């Protein structure tokens, strides 16, 4: 193939894996990341200079000559929707003819998880441009269970007894790569990308306990308790709201979707939490 696929977030845990999978298939890629020094050295890859999503000209230059764009969402911010729109406009000005966007499960204008609303607005903007596109709506990351558990061995949040079918970065990358490699076959599709086990946070804590060899517990919080327990991070209110509502989305059932997308598109079963922890012991090193 002579086409060029641009991969944003190519120094990250999804984008980096996608870039490597495409390189393994002999594709030409254009790699974008916040810090070009952290971009991987891959055959057939060109490292783009810094191109923040809000800088239209920088993004246009970085994507000049690319045919397809794998768009990983920008870091959460109050301006993220506008940053996405600016990047999309710049991509189209550069001649990009297809966009594969990494969205989020349950993206909707009134989603409980406030950051999922940004993804819905971004999806609608891409659709309005008339460009061929595919949306990959991934679930919580499996890595999040350990990351959100404190060194005290407590996973706390207002998730109640709700369930979440979390998914591994590796499985998301496999799905994204399959879509990017199959030019045109997935145009207009929206795929939920999830694990195949929908766990409560109490069940996740049990798996963390087994892996870490110590007791890890889940402590349900009220909304007020959740805000209070996160005050020490010094984050802005909008960011804390995103954290808290991610748990509340679990509580109301918006994260319990189980899809077979990984099996259908990647050709294998998605990783379970137990398998993930076995493969990534560093993810829970703070619990040892």
UniProtKB/TrEMBL annotation:
Domain NmrA-like intervals: 2-220
Cross-referenced SUPFAM superfamilies: NAD(P)-binding Rossmann-fold domains (SSF51735)
Tree of life domain: Bacteria
Protein name listed in UniProt: SDR family oxidoreductase
Species of the source: Streptomyces ficellus
């Amino acid at each position: 193939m002579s086409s060029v696929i641009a991969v944003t977030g190519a120094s990250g845990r999804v984008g980096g894996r996608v870039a490597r999978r495409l390189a393994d298939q002999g594709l030409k890629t254009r790699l974008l990341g916040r810090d070009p020094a952290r971009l991987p050295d891959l055959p057939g890859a060109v490292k783009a200079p810094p191109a923040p999503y809000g800088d239209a000209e920088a993004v246009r230059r970085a994507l000049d000559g690319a045919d397809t764009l794998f768009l990983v969402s920008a870091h959460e911010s109050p301006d993220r929707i506008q940053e996405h729109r600016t990047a999309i406009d710049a991509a189209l000005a550069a001649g990009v003819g297809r966009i594969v966007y990494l969205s989020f499960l349950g993206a909707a204008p009134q989603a409980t998880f406030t950051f999922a609303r940004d993804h819905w607005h971004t999806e609608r903007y891409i659709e309005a441009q008339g460009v061929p596109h595919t949306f990959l709506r991934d679930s919580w990351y499996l890595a999040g269970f350990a990351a959100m558990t404190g060194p005290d061995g407590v996973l706390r949040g207002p998730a109640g007894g709700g369930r979440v079918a979390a998914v591994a970065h590796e499985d998301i990358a496999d799905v994204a790569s399959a879509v990017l490699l199959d030019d045109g076959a997935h145009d207009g599709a929206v795929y939920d990308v999830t694990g195949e086990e929908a766990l409560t946070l109490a069940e996740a804590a049990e798996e963390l306990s087994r892996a870490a060899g110590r007791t890890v517990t889940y402590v349900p919080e009220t909304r007020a308790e959740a805000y209070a327990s996160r005050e020490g991070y010094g984050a802005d209110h909008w960011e804390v709201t995103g954290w808290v509502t991610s748990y509340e989305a679990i509580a109301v059932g918006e994260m319990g979707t189980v899809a077979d997308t990984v099996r259908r598109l990647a050709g294998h079963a998605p990783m379970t939490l137990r398998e993930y922890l076995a493969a990534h012991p560093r993810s829970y090193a703070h619990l040892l």
